[in-house]
């Protein structure tokens, strides 16, 4: 079912946690709320669940208005048909898996045969059929989280809310369950709101990502769109772009602009420069990293190529030396210290070649089209 949040403002005492937030979530869509700790993700989710009462705004699930500050509508959580899965499993350890999953259906006094069938179906969906009679205390963390998911799904919620459900699990299990969750969500065409501060989880699970800062959504789009075109350097940083430097404009020639970083010039397509007060202002002074008006040059690590044979100086060719080598299977991540300037991260496909040892002199190069110039933050 679709979910609509309109102009939601929520405060805890004097502290405003969500500011005039609006978002439409389509039927069957997986929306991930992504952002740093304290930006208001969980609070937003709890408003949908009915666990927090906003100061103002309206929330609609399907065609039912579940909250409206003006009309004083506030449907209690247990009447919203919303399922929730949290970081802690909240599974009863002394009960069987079957009992854990069947509990809410029994509360509703559904016929036994129907309960059995629904629990069986949902255990099958989360891959726990063979564990139905096992005590929950004997399960691994990943299996517990599947029980928690099954317990929500068995109620056939209109919307499933997930708050960092995988963060207690080890990295490998997290990766696997991430894919399973996405598969289940897509198979059931379930409307989901998923809260995380983990960018790779967000990219993998979302139909759309809503990036939150200070109680506001600052960018909302498909994962690949946000990754390719973040609105600000702080969003790029959050999505894992490690080459971000303050810059000033030094010169323009034809369709290229030359930007100055510490000790180096970078060429960028003039049309990709931001305009207005946040734009890369002409100037010869040093770029001030503390000044939010100073624009940032962003180059994704995968857009930097490393060569051991010399390149002509100038353009976007910078001489440096390998400082750190981190082998990542099919990729190698190099940290290159540029001569007299900043360090660059380069993510280089390995293609079976030998790794460059620490200390190797290299030329780092990037196409002007791969260089983004962004405001430090999305203007408030
Ligand atoms: N019960 C509460 N009482 C007072 N302040 C709260 C309460 N819950 C959250 N806050 C504050 O509201 C703001 C938003 O918190 P929220 O938990 O929604 O953020 P979050 O993005 O989900 O963070 P995290 O990833 O750490 O859970 C924070 O400043 C937080 O300190």
Automatic annotation (TrEMBL):
Q: Reply yes or no: does the keyword ATP-binding apply.
A: yes
Q: Name one Pfam family in it.
A: ABC_tran
Q: Which domain of life is it from?
A: Bacteria
Give the Gene Ontology MF terms in alphabetical order: ABC-type transporter activity; ATP binding; ATP hydrolysis activity
* Segments forming domain ABC transporter: 3-239
Region described as Disordered: spans on this chain: 271-294
Q: Where is the composition biased (Low complexity)?
A: 274-294
- Has the keyword Metal-binding been applied to this entry? no
Q: Which InterPro entries match?
A: AAA+_ATPase, ABC_SmlMolc_Importer, ABC_transporter-like_ATP-bd, ABC_transporter-like_CS, Mo/tungstate-bd_C_term_dom, P-loop_NTPase, Transp-assoc_OB_typ2
What is the organism of origin for this protein? Streptomyces radicis
Q: What is this protein called?
A: ABC transporter ATP-binding protein
Quote the PROSITE patterns the UniProt record gives. ABC_TRANSPORTER_1, ABC_TRANSPORTER_2
GO CC annotation: what is one?
ATP-binding cassette (ABC) transporter complex
Which parts of the chain span the membrane according to its record?
none
Keywords recorded for this protein, A-Z: ATP-binding, Nucleotide-binding, Transport
């Amino acid at each position: 079912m679709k979910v609509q949040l309109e102009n939601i403002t929520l405060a805890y005492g004097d502290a405003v946690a969500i500011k005039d937030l609006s978002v439409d979530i389509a039927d069957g869509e997986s929306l991930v709320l992504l952002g740093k700790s304290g930006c208001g993700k969980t609070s937003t989710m709890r408003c949908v669940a009915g666990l927090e009462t906003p100061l103002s705004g309206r929330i609609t699930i399907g065609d039912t208005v579940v909250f409206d500050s003006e009309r004083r509508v506030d449907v209690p959580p247990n009447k919203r048909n919303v399922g929730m899965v949290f970081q802690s499993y909240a599974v009863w350890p002394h009960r069987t898996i079957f009992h854990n999953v069947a509990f809410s259906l029994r509360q509703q006094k559904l016929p036994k045969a129907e309960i059995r069938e629904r629990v069986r179906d949902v255990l099958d969906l989360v891959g726990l059929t063979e564990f139905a009679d096992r005590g929950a205390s004997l399960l691994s963390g990943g299996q517990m989280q599947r029980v928690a998911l099954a317990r929500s799904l068995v109620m056939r919620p209109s919307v499933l809310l997930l708050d960092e459900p995988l963060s207690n699990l080890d990295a490998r299990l997290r990766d696997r369950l991430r894919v399973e969750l996405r598969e289940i969500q897509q198979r059931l065409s379930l409307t989901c709101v998923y809260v995380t501060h983990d960018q790779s989880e967000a990219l993998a699970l979302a139909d759309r990502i809503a990036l939150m800062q200070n109680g506001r959504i600052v960018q909302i789009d498909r994962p690949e769109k946000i990754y390719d075109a973040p609105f600000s350097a702080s969003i790029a940083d959050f999505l894992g772009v490690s080459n971000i430097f303050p810059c000033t404009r030094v010169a323009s020639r034809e369709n290229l602009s030359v930007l100055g970083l510490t000790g180096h010039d970078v060429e960028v397509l003039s049309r990709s420069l931001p305009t207005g007060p946040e734009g890369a202002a002409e100037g010869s002074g040093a770029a001030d990293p503390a000044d939010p008006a100073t624009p940032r040059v962003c180059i994704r690590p995968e857009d930097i190529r490393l060569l051991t044979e010399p390149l002509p100086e100038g353009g976007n060719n910078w001489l440096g030396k390998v400082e750190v080598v981190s082998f990542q299977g099919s990729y190698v991540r190099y940290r290159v210290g540029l001569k007299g300037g900043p360090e660059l991260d380069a993510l280089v496909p390995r293609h079976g070649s030998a790794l460059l040892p620490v200390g190797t002199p290299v030329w780092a190069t990037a196409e002007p089209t791969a260089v983004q110039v962004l405001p430090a933050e999305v203007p408030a």
